[in-house]
Amino acid sequence: MLDTLKTLDRDTGAALSTGIGGTGFSENLALPDGIDVAVQHIHLSQDLLTSYEGDDFLKFHVRLSGQRILVFQGRHTIELDGPATAVLMHDAGVSKFERVVANRDERAVTTMVARARIAEYLDEEQAAMPAALHSLIARKRSQPRMAIAAPTRQELEIANAVIHCRRRGSLRRMYIEAKVVELFCLILDRLRAESDGPDQKTRVTERDRRQLVRLRDFLSCSFAHPPTIHQLARQFGLNRNKLCSGFFALYGMSIYEFCDSLRMDQARRMLLESQLMISEIALSTGYGSSSAFSAAFHRRFGYAPSQGRRGLRNIEV
Fold first, then answer.
1. Could you tell me if 121 and 71 are in contact, meaning their C-beta atoms sit under 8 angstroms apart?
2. pTM of the model
3. With DSSP H G I counted as helix, E B as strand and the rest as coil, what are the percentages for the chain, rounded to 5?
4. Is pLDDT above 60 for 15?
5. Within 10 A of 19 (CB to CB), how many other CB atoms are there?
6. Selection from 36-40, 52-56, 230-234 with the highest mean pLDDT
């Protein structure tokens, strides 16, 4: 049961209604390098009313379901009902009143980046600001600053994976960071495609390729407890967008999926070749608990670790 909900945005939110009953969760995470993320999966028994003051943040909002009504400066109203991808430039000094409608499943992931940081990301990538994004940022600040489109299949899949992530500890933070950066890159690429044409793809230079090969070799040895995306970007001299999208372009999977695959393969070998308890194998492969490890193992192989150990031993005999 939810007693008092955290606001969706940063600390600029001031709740007008508290003690709202309902089920679910609302979580805010501050990721490295100036990216914040808010994850919501709630079902309220009465409307939640919240007011915000702008803080010059660009917000990328992917929602799977629910209904919320936004009112800017007391007069400009925008309604989000059902699945949508929205990009909002919330300028400093612009007020926003928000109503999350009760008796609906509100499921959404919002990535928040300071206006200045967006320009820095694009400079690091040596990419021009997409015309669609520039138009949004440059619009008169007293007007609603939001562009809305139907979400793509990939955007919905990533948002759903973040919302339903059941991992804990450092693996959870790494998973959410990787997925949020991937989502952030997808929306930026979508804005570029709308500005520059549909054939724009991630450009991987020869230098990028060498660094990504080094990254893959490094992760092959440190997959159980890998550094964060932010730390990897600094270590290998690539911005986070290029690190994530470039790795996917070369290897057909995300950094997290690559590490998770290696963890699972090692766990299966350890089940066959060692006498370690399942809890010990879970810890040695980077999982915080036996239950998290067992769930991941079952998702990967279709059977529980205990069944795998018995089955593999029977085959060996």
1. no
2. 0.60
3. 45, 25, 30
4. no
5. 10
6. 36-40
Residue 250 — very low, low, confident or very high, per pLDDT cuts 50/70/90? confident
What Cα–Cα distance (Å) separates residue 1 from each residue in 42, 85, 107, 251?
10, 28, 16, 42
Cα–Cα dist 173/228, whole Å = 8
Nearest residue to 125 (alpha-carbon basis) of 64, 170, 192, 66:
192
- How many Cβ atoms from other residues are within 10 Å of residue 56's Cβ? 15
The number of residues making up the chain comes to 317
Q: pLDDT tens digit string along 113-134?
A: 887 777 676 655 555 566 667 6
For residue 128, the 8-state DSSP code is P
Q: Helix (H, G, I), strand (E, B), or coil: what is residue 92?
A: coil
Residue-wise pLDDT for 146-197, tens only, equals 778 888 888 888 899 999 888 777 778 888 888 888 888 778 777 766 554 4
In the numeric block, the tokens 């994004």 are attached to 133
Residue 13 DSSP class: E
Alpha carbons within 13 angstroms on the beta-carbon side of residue 214 total 13
Residue 249, SS3 per DSSP? helix
C-alpha–C-alpha distance, residues 195 and 267, integer Å: 46
Strands (E) across 166-242 are located at none
pLDDT at 143: 59
Q: Order across the sheet with 76-81: list the strands.
A: 13-15, 48-53, 95-100, 67-72, 76-81
Residues near 73 by beta carbon (within 8 Å), at least 6 away in sequence: 94, 95, 142
| Rounded (10°) CA dihedral 25, 28, 32, 33 | 130
